[in-house]
Design a protein that fits this description.
Number of helices: 3
Structural class: alpha+beta
Largest sheet: 6 strands, antiparallel
CATH class: Alpha Beta
CATH superfamily: Hotdog Thioesterase
CATH topology: Thiol Ester Dehydrase, Chain A
Order of helices and strands: HHEEHEEEE
Low-confidence stretches: none
Shape: elongated
Mean pLDDT: 95
Amino acid sequence: MNFTPHNPEFASVVRASFERQGLMKMLGATLDRVEPGAVDISMPYSESLTQQHGFLHAAAITAIADSASGYAALSLMPVGSEVLTIEFKVNLLRPAAGTRFVAEGRVIKPGKTITVSRTDVFAHADDGVPTLIATLIATMIAQAGQKN
């Protein structure tokens, strides 16, 4: 979908907010794409983020998926807005096996206050073929900017 952002500085707002996230830094996540209604976040495999079978833990996958959905929503919000997740559902479709994981957040339905977004998470292995491993549907709320 093609969306027109309300904030002409949306990309710098999204990037600045992402840089303030300690969890994304801890995960080694990077912001790879920022467009109106679309944000991609990637994360490398790390043994420190695995569960007992050696797959990346669902919590790490969910974290990048939630952030990608939230930032996709933020990209369409008015100047001075912040975004918070108010609900999400994640379907874990396959074990998270790969060397890199990419969360592709896309706005489904933007709104003045409430935005619905979807993130598909893909595992990338050495063969270069991405495999869909999770899908998250989220509801985001816009609120006036806050200082920490």
